[in-house]
Design the sequence.
C-alpha cells in the first residue's frame, strides 16, 4: 500500500487553501526497463475530494501526470476543524482514502 496523502488545509478569512501530495509511481506505459521491455501503465485514474463529507472536486488523471501528483485549490466557506478528505483509484484498482483537518493560517 502507498504512503498516506499529505493534506494541508489552511483557513484564511472565509477561504480554505487545500494542498495535497499523493504518493504514487504514475507509470505512463511508455518507459522501458533495463531489459528493454515496456513497463506497464499504472497511474491514478480518478481523484475525489470532499469537504465535511460533501464532494467538492472530482478529477480524471491520465498517464501524463507526473510521479507523486500535487493538487492545490481554494474552497470558500469553511472553518477551522472542518474535514477534508481525498480518495483515489488507479489503473490496477488500488484505492487510497485519507483525511485532514482545516487549520488556521499562520
Sequence:
Amino acid at each position: 500500500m502507498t504512503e498516506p496523502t499529505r493534506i494541508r488545509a489552511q483557513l484564511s478569512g472565509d477561504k480554505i487553501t487545500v494542498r495535497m501530495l499523493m504518493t504514487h509511481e504514475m507509470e505512463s506505459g511508455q518507459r522501458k526497463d533495463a531489459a528493454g521491455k515496456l513497463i506497464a501503465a499504472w497511474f491514478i485514474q480518478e481523484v475525489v475530494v470532499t469537504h465535511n463529507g460533501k464532494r467538492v472536486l472530482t478529477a480524471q488523471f491520465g498517464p501524463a501526470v507526473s510521479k507523486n501528483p500535487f493538487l492545490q485549490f481554494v474552497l470558500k466557506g469553511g472553518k477551522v476543524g472542518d474535514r477534508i478528505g481525498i480518495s483515489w483509484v488507479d489503473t490496477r484498482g488500488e484505492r487510497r482514502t485519507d483525511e485532514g483537518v482545516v487549520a488556521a493560517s499562520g
Remarks:
- The chain is about 0% helix and 50% strand.
